[in-house]
Amino acid sequence: MENQEIICVACPLGCHVTLTVDASGKIVKFEGNECKAGEKYVAEEFKAPIRVFTGTVRTKGGARPLLPVRTSQPILKEKILECGRYICVLEVAPPLKTGDVVLPNILGIGVDLIATGDLD
Amino acid sequence: MTNEAYDLVIVGAGPAGLASAMKAKESGLEKVLIIERGEYLGGLLDQCVHTGFGLSYFREDLTGPEYAKRFIEKVSDLKVETLLKSMVLEIDSDRNIKYSNSSGVRTLKAHSIILAMGCRERSREALRIPGSRVAGVYSAGTAQRYVNVDGFIPGKEVVILGSGDVGMIMARRLSIEGVEVKAVVEVLPWIGGLIRNEVQCLRDFGIPMHLTHTVIEVHGKRRVEAVTIAQVDKHWAPISGTEKKIGCDTLLISAGLIPENELSRAAGIEIDPVTGGPIVDQNLETCIPGIFACGNVLHVHDLVDNVSLEAERAGLHAVAFVGSGTKPSGKPIRLKAGKNINYIVPQTIDGTSEVTLYMRVKEPRRNAEVKVGTIAKKKERIVVPSQMIEIKLTSSALADLDKTTGELEVACEGKGD
Asked: ipTM for the complex?
């Protein structure tokens, strides 16, 4: 059995929830949460914490130096820094509209990097 | 009505300005103008490349620019007039507006005005942090502009003073751009922003947070070389012996937002010393008839969704004013901040119109109950200063209100520490 602590962010309480996990990785106990809804969030966060990656890429020949971007879906939390490093070398050119795919299947994760602003 | 140039002039094209313009135009007001000193519409949303916007308004998790675009497109479709790179210099109680741009200084007259100027950030100078006056000290929002709009990082080793959301967001943003964020330092015993940001901006990146600490000195000759932090007592005085020096080349300050009300003060609008914004009634109208306020200039919000909703209400009230003037409504009832309540907006109500009160507590409390006189109450598992509380006063609740006292107290009870 193993213990892991996760802060639930489903509401402002921010309960520090201690999970007891068995050898197969299954959660057998939740401790410290004040409601049931938090258990769902914490279970998902334990299994595979995901985050939306957001940042900027450089532009070439555009009306502004940077274009804001995001992943179209959340990705695994552990891939966030790698995403940031990878897109450092990207350069995009106008015209681009919000929602356009800037880089398909970023890092082979199966998620696209899309523009969140227009580039004229 | 008469020969006024505009039915409604809105100062500021951030989320508050855009939403109020949209609502006013949709409700049939003809000549609506937004005056904005910056180069584009959307205000600070443009530099907020992170998500968390629109969760309630659109039921989507959008970035700042995506959220702004929805309103910018609406405003354009509705043919709202906009004047960019134009700075309002003066507003008077007759609703004349003097502004300046590359064409010179001009004055126009508005039948109604909505103030939507937003906020500034508290500076190092306002915090009076001792030490060298070196390069490398920025407000967190300035750093955000450099990183997300201009394409520069502010430094390589950063310490952030203040655990407001802007500071925490920048801790994450800088980490993603390869900058080492060495610490977030917070003078209070609790976090200034959302728990979500503590987790997703600090813990995710292994950035330590020092609660009950502050920066007591900045070191360096021409550029920041280090800061000294220390633990503070309950009077915020540094505790001798707890000093710690952290080497860094940049100090970011995220220690509070201040509504930008120079124009309002100069116009003679009464300002609430706690919110830093205009005193308004249930119509979001200031003490000058026909001048309304909404968004961060009125009180600092946590969520842009609430800014948009508040701004829409201001737009509707401006439309009603243009249509039929301010109706006299008897002696206003003053909202009084009681136990553990920091402020309430609006500051006065007429006691008959349905209205939603927005408030913040001074200190966190568990199992809390917020009571509005004896006519309404709300129970919360936890109340924290960083999350605004809403309580709606319905017609039936207001019917129970004793209007003779002219006052209505809001108080919060709960378990402290």
From this structure: 0.91
